[in-house]
Amino acid sequence: MVKNDRWSYALMFSPGIVIYFCFLLIPIFLLVYYSFYDWDGLSPSYSFAGLSNYVEAFHDKAFARALQVTLFITVVATLAVNILGIAFAVFLNQKGRMTNFYRSVFFFPLLLSTVSVGFIWKSILSYNGLFNNLLEQLGVERIEFFGNPDLAVWTITFLAIWQSTGFIIVIYLAGLQSIPGSLYEAVKMDGANRWQQFRHITFPMLAPAFTMSIIFMFTGSMREYDRVAILTSGGPAGATETIAYQVVKVGFSANRLSYSASLAVYMLIIVSLLSVSLTVYLRRREERLL
Amino acid sequence: MRRNFAPYARHLFLMPLSLLLLVPFYIAVVNAFKTRADILDNPFSLPVLNLTLDNFIRSAVTPSFNIFKAYGTSILITSVSVVLLVVLCSMMSFVFARVSNRFLSVCYLLLLSGLMIPPQVILIPLVKVLAKLGLMFTPQGLILYNIGFYVPFTVFIFVGFIRTLSRELDESAKIDGASQLTIFWKILFPLLRPATASAVIFLCLWIWNDFINPVIILGSTKSYTVTTGIYQAVGQYSTNWEDVFALVVLASAPIFLLYLFMQRQFIAGLTEGSLKG
User: Which family is annotated (chain B) (predicted)?
Assistant: First the structure.
């Protein structure tokens, strides 16, 4: 490498990596450091606490419940969105007059902030919201979409599905359009029916779009925060708290900074392990299928 | 018979879905122009008879919230963060794609692992870092955080794209004695347009719609973005739906208008770029 080039490269490389180190990597190291102490976040002195935060978090029932809620939302939303996404993309993938209209409509919910969309749904579904007013006028009892612990988790899951399905449909549409039509000609000659065509050609050939959609939904749902904050504030009685919500709640309102750091480290480990194994599995699947 | 019916059958599935996706927005928009009594009486009708702008006038500017100030802050934070991300990360990606040594491989691995970090995890220590630098409660602090957080994603998009471009392009320019920096900006960067478009659209949406980071980093008093501003404003009204609808419409209008004029670019940028990356 020419000496001149070295300077050029260093100049181009350093600003970005320095900001990344200062505002992402150093905070991660600090997080791990805090998690081994007993700092409340405010007092000037604190002492080494070993693994005690981690031991406490391990036995923390509220955290276990938050993890359960998070995994429930993640699994249900990821599966539902991908099944709906593939089904609707297949329907939409015929050239027709309305295709562009549908595509624009499906995309729209994802563009707006979860906060705006959350407030709209809150005004519709909450106890004195528009939908419940309508039920009362019809003589039906009001439904506690956010007040009943089990139903509240389902409602949040439904809204996560509602907001992402359109985007995933469009991802699968892009995937479908990259499948060469000649593949279908061959199996049609062998007399394959529609379901067989889907099973043996469409679904395997969608592997890259499948990987992307699963990872997108998985990572997004594991860090579910906004909807919980807007719709239920974690309630009733902590029933809708996700791990992301709990990390922020404990860290910023309960003045237990070190303890919340250990929760955050757990969250980081769980999310990373699951995302890495899921990605590796899906990439291998792609190689096998394509 | 069946063949004639088939093209319409799909509408039986797609129309209800479209309605399900659009109805909440319809409800928000029509009710933003109604009085409260009117909303309770007929929440689904168009506001033809009692059309009112009072909800907007009342909630757009209050002693504690000003939507125009919120637009200003959001535009400033989003545009500065996105421009800097594109400039810094496209250059970084050029180095990653063209030079290989151990230091860079380690850096690349560290960057990719950053893709998986949930933002809530680093907020607590980040606040301490920003406070130490005197950047807490400032837009600059939020911008620096945005850059740090989205470097992995942006580099990921650009590196994938640059690797598909031939090296002969930069080598022929090098014979003319140009430095790597000039070669990149004069020759390569214009060719990166599809990747740049994808990155810009994703980053704009994420940063504009971001909620928890501005809530914590900007705090609740001095400055607010559109998202955190309406969150605080609605918090005061809680169940005055007519004000909530007006605020949501005001908050969503910029993105809706942009989408109306640039649908094709939006959809292409969000699907094609990401699938290739």
Answer: Belongs to the binding-protein-dependent transport system permease family.
